[in-house]
Design a protein that fits this description.
mainly alpha
């Protein structure tokens, strides 16, 4: 059984009144979006921190490899003992 247009309009009006009576329902989407923005910002900050840590670790590793390379060059340049 299909609803008449008048019935649909009455239902829509009742829904609008119900949402208007409970503003937290109307604002739920806004609160959700704000929460998602805050979470996104926290994730971006953490990713930035992780990137800085990785760059620091790579820099330290490069220094260690340079030192190892220098030590190996010295070892091979020395005459046999």
């Amino acid at each position: 059984m299909a609803l008449a247009q008048e019935d649909i309009e009455q239902i829509e009006e009742l829904i609008r009144k119900s949402i208007a009576a409970t503003p937290e329902v109307g604002n739920a989407n806004v609160c959700y979006e704000i929460g998602m923005w805050e979470r996104t910002i926290r994730i971006e900050d953490e990713l930035k921190h992780q990137r800085e840590l990785i760059l620091m670790a790579l820099t330290q590793m490069e220094k260690r490899l340079d030192n190892i390379n220098i030590d190996l060059n010295k070892h091979f340049e020395q005459p046999d003992k």
